Each structure stands twice: as structure tokens, then as C-alpha cells.
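Records of this kind hold a single protein each, on a pair of labelled lines. With that in mind, the following record should read easily:
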Amino acid sequence: MCRPSGSRKPLWASLKRHNIYEQTQINPNMKKIITLLLVSISVANCFSQIGEEFYKIGMEKFDRKDFNGSIAAFTKAIELTHFETDDQIRKKILEQLETKKQVANYFLNRGHAKYEIQDFESAEKDFWNVTMILPDFPEGHFQKGRAYFELQEFSLSIFAFTKTIEIDSSDAEAYFRRGLAKYELASPFSHKNEMLDDSLTHSGNYNDAITDFTKSLEIHCCPSEAYYHRGRAKGQLGDYQGAIDDQTKAIVIDPNYAWAYEERGIAKQRLGDNQGAMNDFNISIKISPNARSYRCRGSMKLGLADFRGAIEDCSESIKLDPSFPTAYMTRGMAKIHLNQKESGCLDLSKAGELGMTDAYEEIKRSCNK
């Protein structure tokens, strides 16, 4: 990715950092003094230095990957501002640009730390505060979009990335990530938001996803991943040659991109290039043994009447992911072709239990006789 997954460049490069021992404590009397100063003298001068000391501790802990410690330090910095607990103080903070920047920075970096421990719901709340404090700051909207994506709130993710792009139309990664959200929302299996996903809103579709991936490539972001995901979207629309072309571009950039080989193999199989598909599945498995590539190769072997090979590949797939229904389905059909009816029907039943409804139709045809 163009952006690192963790902490990014500090929001305001001019902010000073001050040295402090990690065991520093603020006594109750000092807190009262700080509060009085906030209200009556100058919001900027009263909490900035002490808050920045805790901010520095938070950044140091983040760099050491002590994310919980980092969150605790950023929380202390936020508490010192009384932004969340005192309406009068919050109003004064929002009236002054420098204090708005400072408080937004605390929330932004605490959100990064929460994101790292996969507390996406809480991270989203911190990023939301950033957008509330600084509505024209694109990074807050961008990070909020990432959190929504992880929460599978794809429509909200699209809205957040769209806002990022409205503020900064050159943000290539925002286009890329919006494309991902549109791709996921287009899936019939994705979580839908009844209030947002209608004809008047961003319902998500593969063509729009392709447009966003193309835009990210034009601005030069995330090329291997953008080609890979654009190829997936083309495959969903039945443009298998376009999918092959994009996956090939992704592989040229990153020869060890296992998923690109797998997706290219699927597209080649759809066009009847069985040997080419088999070669791609073999490479994908060699680079990164994974359940899906084994299942894809097993399915191809089933179609080529290599039933034992299909069973072997699907068994490997199930070892790697026991909840993969299509692997049970494919293995079950291969077993039935080898007259292993009882075991094959058990596999079909398992596939049905895992949500593959087509398995029950196959059971009617092959097992209930």
C-alpha cells in the first residue's frame, strides 16, 4: 500500500515533543489548575505542554508496538484537554485552530493504535472525532473509511473515502480503497445497510469498482494490488481476457503474488485453457499453499476426471480451512465418481451444513437412490 498500515506522519509537523519519564503522574490539584486555565486564560498554553509529553510517550510506545500502552498515553493526553467531558472547554478548543489541531492529533493517533489491535469500532469513534474537529482534513475521513471497511460497513466506507476524494482529488489510495469497498458491496453475500443501500446511494457495483481502481493506477498508487483487484472485478463481469491481462500485469510487478496466479488460473479455466490454468494453480500453491488454490485445482481435476487428484487437493484444502464448503462439495462428488458413495455423501452433507445449498440438490441426485 502507499500508506503504511500503522502510524503515519504526525498530523502537525510543527508540534513540539517534550521529554518526560514514563512514570509521570498528574496529581488532582494540578488537574484543577489545568481546568481553570483552560476556561479562563488560554486553552492552547494550559494543556499543550503536558499533553504533548503524554503524546510523546504514546508515539514511543506505538513505535515499540506496545499498542495498549500507546492507547493509555494518548487517552491521558485527551483527558487533560477535558474535550470529552466539558462542553464549555470543548467549545473554546474548537474556537482556536492550534488547539483543534493538537486535540485532533491525539484522537488520530489513538485511533491508529486501536486499529492495530483490531478494535475497529473504537478506532472509528476516534477517527470520527478527528472529522468533527477538522472537517476539511482528509486524513480523518480516510482513516474512518478504513475502519468502516473492517467493520464491513461498506456503504459508510464508500461515503468516507468519497469525502476524502472531495477534499483531495489526488489521493490515489482513497480511490483504491473506495474501489475495494464498492467491490465488496457488490457481492450478494456482503452485509447490506437497509438505510444506505438503495438506488439513491452508493450501492456498489463492479463497474464502479473498476473505475476507481483505474483512477488509482492513473495517479500511480498500489499498482500490483490495483491490477489484481481490477482483474477480479472484470472476472465477475465475465471479461475473462481482461481479467487475465490485469493479473498478468500484477504478476509482472510482483512475481510472487500468489493470489494473482490463482485468479488468472480461474479466468484461464473459464476460457477453456485448462493447461494454463493448471500451471497457474500450481505456482500459486508453490508460493503460498492455501485452501482456495487447492480447491480450485481440485475442481479442475474433477472436471478432467482425475478424481483421485481432486480428492487429494480438496483434502489439503480442508486441512487448511475446515470451514470451506466448496472443498467438501468437490471432494464429495469426486468420491461418488469412485463409488465411495457413503463417504462422498457425508462430504456433500457437510457442504450443505456450511451453507452451500447446491449440495442438497446433488444429494438428491446421487445419494437418495
About this structure: Residues 68 and 212 are 35 Å apart (CA to CA). Residues 289-369 form a domain with the Serine Threonine Protein Phosphatase 5, Tetratricopeptide repeat fold (CATH 1.25.40.10).
